[in-house]
Fold this sequence. Notes:
Blueprint: H1 3-29, H2 45-51, E1 54-59, E2 73-78, H3 81-91, E3 96-101, E4 113-114, E5 127-128, H4 136-154, E6 155-165, H5 170-182, E7 186-193, E8 209-216, E9 224-225, E10 246-250, E11 256-257, E12 262-264, E13 267-269, E14 272-274, E15 278-281, E16 284-285, E17 289-293, H6 299-307, E18 310-314, E19 321-325, H7 327-330, E20 337-338, H8 340-343, H9 346-357, H10 368-377, E21 378-379, E22 387-390, H11 397-409, E23 414-419, H12 425-439, E24 450-459, H13 469-477, H14 480-487, E25 491-495, E26 499-503, E27 508-512, H15 520-529, E28 534-539, E29 556-561, H16 563-573
Parallel strand pairs: 2-23, 2-24, 3-6, 3-22, 7-20, 11-18, 22-23, 27-28, 28-29
Antiparallel strand pairs: 1-24, 4-5, 6-8, 7-8, 9-21, 10-17, 12-15, 13-14, 14-17, 15-16, 18-19, 25-26, 26-27
Helix pairs in contact: 3-4, 3-14, 3-16, 4-5, 10-11, 11-12
Amino acid sequence: xxxxxxxxxxxxxxxxxxxxxxxxxxxxxxxxxxxxxxxIDVPEAFxxxxxxxxxxxxxxxxxxxxxDDGKPTHLLIEAENYYALTCxxxxxxxxxxxxxxxxPYNTGLDGFRYKDKRILNKYPDGTEVPxxxxxRHSYWLSFMRKRLDLAKDLLSQNGTIFISIDDxxxxxxxxxxxxxxxxxxxxxxxxxxxxxxxxxxxxxxxxNAEYVLCYKRNIDTKIELVERWxxxxxxxxxxxxxxxxxxxxxxxxxxxxxLENGKYKAGKFGDVELLDDIQVDKNKIINAFRISGRFKWSxxxxxxxxxxxxxxxxxxxxxxxxxxxxxxxxxxxxxxxxPSDLVGDVLSANAELNQIFGKSPFKYPKPSSxxxxxxxxxxxxxxxxxxxxxxxxxxxxxGHAVLKLNKADGGNRQFILVTNDEGGIMSNVCYPRIKxxxxxxxxxxxxxxxxxxxxxxxxxxxxILNTTDRDKLTLAHNAxxxxxxxxxxxxxxxxxDYYEIFENADRHTAIYFRxxxxxxxxxxxxxxxxxxxxxxxIFSWENxxxxxxxxxxxxxxxxxxxxxxxxxYRRIYNL
Length: 575
């Protein structure tokens, strides 16, 4: 096709796309539904900036961690998540099994900033959003809408998304997700007991809970809820300082105790009082007895928990009773309430980071036990080979959770973590955390696995709606890592100025990225020597994958670049 004629066609198509996008924006601003969520859709700098650039991913090999342990190679992507989600819509569209995100809660104090395009010259790093800002909710909804729109297309047909949130945006997020994912696809709004012992400072209620919204991509696909549960987190005490003293009665041969065999006299022991003598034999109190203290459980509740399989443990001569619920015996299906002794709380999350770093470098982390639990909530035949995405990766909790699961059951789940490096969150927290738990140190056992480190960069001189032939050439020359990620062939085995070859244990990806075909015969010969199946990508001005050199060759598929990449980007920017 003549280049001038092709340019005329491209210009016409781009004008149509711009008009379609403007019509869609107007439709949103003039919603006439009787019921739904409406807000001022504030233009974000990222949205139109990407239209003036072509995003790609670039590997940073010096930051990779590689182990030859047969475990998955995960992806860490340093980028603003809007850019990363754009690239992932080419590499992973319809391929993600589970998304977990912990976005900004928009509390007015959590540092959430919005890059309002209208005032970017005044606030280049984004405008702060205090609790009394008139556009507080509009900023946040505009921010989330763009990212959840992109995330939806990444989910497989059986995919599930979990979103952590608190009261500040819970109502708005629920309506937004109903609109994006469909109200009928809501699985549950879980209530997470985030603080086991909440503060008494509040004059109204003592907040101790957050929420996790759970949606399926398609509720009509088969759902099998897991019948196994994560281990409870520690052994919480039955005492609570602000409660009144009350006695509790325990039956014989029920309470476990970590004291030597023998008889122990009744008496006062610090905060609790043993009201009866007890006899200990083989780490059990063999007689029935009473004990008094500032207990948070009533006798009635204790009796019901005993019936449900609770264990009571006394650790020493303080005689403080602790409880351990064996959820594996008592629960077969997830309940709406996620108790902290099952999935952890903010204290256990901070303790986890303290163990890794010595002192927690991150505010408000989630415990990896919570994310592990959520990942296991929905089970399918390939539950040990899920691909899990977190595009608000923060301290790297999701990656840690996946590594622990893989270690526990020999699974091959792969995670993709995305975060920017604002405030050093990637370089000082997320990256070192994942590195430490993979490699291990004196305090942390090695969990194995490997990861590749990437950054999102931009190429070309024009945006997606104005790409020139020069831009297309530049994109093709720089898209090899993007294609390797799309095929999950992350190890580079050969590279020169004309072609590049990647592999994994099962297959190869071979990319001829030059418009000049001087070394194409050499490329063909190399591909034909490869023993594993090969995905071949070849530069083409048209979108025609036919290449007679590979015709009828078993195990070889042929695709073109860069047009299919551009087509995905065009669809995104025409949302």
